[in-house]
Amino acid sequence: MISQFGKFLNKSHSPVDGAGDRGGGPGGGDQSEVLAIEIKRGGLRAKILTWGATLADLRLDGHDHPLVLGFREFEHYRDYAAHHGAIAGRVINRIAGAKATIDGTQYHFDTNHLTKHTLHGGAMGFGWRNWQLGDYGDDFVELILDDPDGSMG
Questions:
Q1: In the beta sheet, which residues pair with residue 1?
Q2: Is the pTM of this model over 0.85?
């Protein structure tokens, strides 16, 4: 089952120190709907959001409580819960000084933490973007995100 969960309105918000406008997709400006896709199999039910490829809910038949923490309102994911249940990429954790040397070449990355470090892939990390819905069925969902080479550093 697919339902609208919210609408990303390209609102500026900064739950991470030094972060600016998150945008909603490559280049920002994404005005698309955030969808919730429910899938189930073998006694498990999951709700996946297109926002950040987020696992919003996971339930096991016969148990009243969810197996993961989540929110009922999209705005709570967007405004208060950086990376809560989402894909935290292109990098997980922090890159000190927002730079790295790989095979002798120095690369510089987006500074979205304390104005000098990269945290979870930068201000346009995968968890802050609305993914496209690809193929789906009763027990699977495919989410697609195009991230060009060199994006964010």
A1: none
A2: no
